[in-house]
Amino acid sequence: MNTTHLVKDFNIEIERIDLGWEHIKLRFDDIEIPFEASYIGSEPTSSLVVSIFHLENHFYITTDDYFAQWHWNDEQGKMRFEAERSSTTDVLTIDIVFDKYDNGSDIKQWHLQMPYVLYRNIVIKTALRQLKRYGIKGFHENWMTDDFTELPTMLIAILSSETKRLSEDPNSSEQFSDIFSEIELFKQALQNC
Asked: What is the value of pTM for the model shown?
């Protein structure tokens, strides 16, 4: 793996999402990583938002740190991501491997570290901007898959992490939240992005 690049400025540009393609560019300081993701794999914006959920919730009992893994596909290869958030320093380490032909013949790798809050803020802002630009249905139809992307649901889960349940029946495992509060929170977030 390459030497660690300490990131001070992070940005995500999405040129467009249409016909099952998402033209995305990740910028870590002066390192630009463009990618044309295909519908044959995960939708990039949604996968970045899902990574936040994983980086804030423990799914591995053996460590206090948080982990997330995801990948994007194009017609000729795959870009794989592994992220680890330190529970003590709140630093995010991201390893990115792009294998253009998915056989090891043309591999590019990056090893990056940044404050987790920088990653979180930029990913959420990017996702909100895409929903504001396309709408939920438009976003889904541009990606052209049978399954709806996880984007709106995961954004609500992340943004409303502090909302309280309206009620919880002790005889049931059902949990409840206030849909109107969630809609208002979503609306405010969209207006402020």
From this structure: 0.89
